[in-house]
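Table S2 (continued). Query chain:
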Amino acid sequence: MVDFYALSHFVFASLVEDREELAIDCETTAGGRYVLVRVAVADSDRERVIGKGGKTLNLIKTILGLAAKNSGQTVELNLYTEEAGPSLPRKPRRSRHR
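Corresponding output:
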């Protein structure tokens, strides 16, 4: 089994500036096959963690997903900020130019 708390802490601690506001909670359900990782960061670190167009956050989800797949688990990552609650990157808009 993967220690998702340690893996998540390693990744997010290297990205955020305000480490005192970093909070990580991992919950395992369904006989250990499903893991929910909740990460809270300061509002000032939100853009740094999400990245341009959500690329950084998607890469983190990929890392966690590969670790889960190798151990026969499924993982879900939820990112929270102080004011906004769950944060999701916006999908890039398609250009309307022809």
